[in-house]
Amino acid sequence: MNNQHIETVRKWYPRALTSIDTVNRLLDTIERELELKPSQLMHADSMCCDDVNAIQYPPRAMEMLGPFHLGGLNGFPFAGITGMNAFAHHVPEDGAVIIFYAPHIGITKNGTIGEISRIGQSKNSACCGAAKGALSRLIEGKIIEGNISSLDFQMNTIEQIFLHQKERILNAESQSFEATEVMYEAIDERIEVLVKETHYPCKYVLLAGAIFINGDKDMGSFCQYKKFDCLNLETGERRSLMNEYYQ
Ligand SMILES: [Zn+2]
């Protein structure tokens, strides 16, 4: 059954699916292409710690082992090398590691991007709040190059990521949309580095990179994949499963 709000979401993300369909397709593709069942998959996610992501987390993802949470604010993998190594060593020997990573953004019923209506609240609030906060500081020119404090380490890191793409974000038609694209690229780049630095006692590493889209409280959530790669650790071969995923 199709979600009645999917067309609103697809104005921004043309290949978005509901997050329920996303996980169904993910697990079906892995079973079809690699003959692995959910119980053979050690799942890590790198998503924003925002409570809405817990509320709107697709239940079927729990059929995999995990999740091990790599993410902090807006999905950046703040758990770093230590986090990667920890979960990598929990993988079933005949199985695979799968890392799902995504910044998130809200889209309301009427198509407003960067905010949502949350349970028990009459007014909309920012989503991702951290990204919107960093974007406001970018617009106001308040981000100082190199300023990363221990008191607000994760937020300061996002601020620096945005500062380094200042013109691109500020000149965009939708600054919230563009800031999320910038965030995705920063997360993707970091995940690729972390994956190379980590040893996995299994055959496959699966990487699913996406934008996670939160709807209003009664809309559910959505997801648009940007990358779905399978790394064969025995042969060193890397292959995209995007066509198989969308078939
Ligand atoms: Zn967030």
Bound molecules: zinc ion
Tally of individual helices: 9
Q: Portion of residues in helices?
A: 25-40%
Low-confidence stretches: none
Radius of gyration: 18 Å
Distance between the termini: 17 Å
Q: Hey, roughly how much beta strand do the residues contain? A: 15-25%
User: Total number of β-strand segments?
Assistant: 10
Biggest β-sheet description = 8 strands, mixed
H/E element sequence: HEHEHEHEEEEHHHHEEEH
Query: What structural category arises from helix and sheet content?
Result: alpha/beta
Organism: Chryseobacterium oryctis
Protein name: Limiting CO2-inducible protein B/C beta carbonyic anhydrase domain-containing protein
Domain Limiting CO2-inducible protein B/C beta carbonyic anhydrase: 19-231
What topology does this entry show?
Elements: H1 6-10, E1 17-18, H2 19-34, E2 41-46, H3 51-55, E3 65-69, H4 80-88, E4 96-101, E5 104-106, E6 115-116, E7 125-126, H5 129-139, H6 153-163, H7 166-170, H8 175-196, E8 204-214, E9 221-232, E10 238-240, H9 242-246
Parallel strand pairs: 2-3, 2-4, 4-8, 5-8
Antiparallel strand pairs: 1-9, 6-7, 8-9, 9-10
Helix pairs in contact: 5-6
Zinc ion binds near residues 48, 50, 74, 104 and 130.
Task: Describe this structure as you would to a colleague.
This protein has about 250 residues and is an alpha/beta fold. Helices cover about 35% and strands about 20% of the residues. The chain contains 9 helices and 10 strands. It has helices at about 5-10, 20-35, 50-55, 80-90, 130-140, 155-165, 165-170, 175-195, 240-245; strands spanning about 15-20, 40-45, 65-70, 95-100, 105, 115, 125, 205-215, 220-230, 240. The strands form 2 sheets. Strands 1, 2, 3, 4, 5, 8, 9 and 10 form an 8-stranded mixed sheet that branches. The longest helix is centred in the C-terminal third of the chain and has 22 residues, at about 175-195. The relative contact order is 0.19. The mean pLDDT is about 95. The structure holds zinc ion (ZN). Zinc ion binds near residues 74, 104, 128 and 130. It comes from Chryseobacterium oryctis. This is Limiting CO2-inducible protein B/C beta carbonyic anhydrase domain-containing protein.
